[in-house]
Fold this protein.
Amino acid sequence: MKNLIQAVGFAKSKVDHGFSQVGRELRADDPAHRALMTLAARSIALGNALVVLVQHDHANEAVPMLRSLIGAAAEMRWIADGSSDSKARAFLSQSGASGDPLWSGAALRERLGRYGFSARAREALGWDEAHWRANAQGLPWGHVFADAAGGSPAPQPVTSEALLEAAVESLAQVLNALHQVWPASFDGADELRQKVK
């Protein structure tokens, strides 16, 4: 697990370094620049938060944040993949609203497939039940409710390793998106994926 935590830090250093290099090129009035910077900043913050939760044995509670990270990475890949300004404007106008593209199941799943997200990242979209129902035994007498209403056992909680593997894959996709827009300044996606293996 230590190598996965270090991989999250590696991703942050690559994003920091890349934006330091392109800083003078960034334009506040460019919708693609604004959307990519916003999403990159959120992705790094989410990666850091996931590490904190994992270090305190709360991987299962981090599932919604992982979903946000996966969504941000997929959105970045989509924005960077041609017609960036119109896609960025759509993201900026919809983000935070009901039907936010980061949480849209159909669009998100399509983008994960299109941009080659790992099986672990795609699997993570199905961890909602584990997030809500696992760890029922955490309270006194919680074992009484370990089975669902239909008699099926509660799902196993998400493991720290699985959560971090999906997070590192998503951060590699963040680097891929930034590299697509600023190829001379953002590298490290393949190296990041190697850290998972």
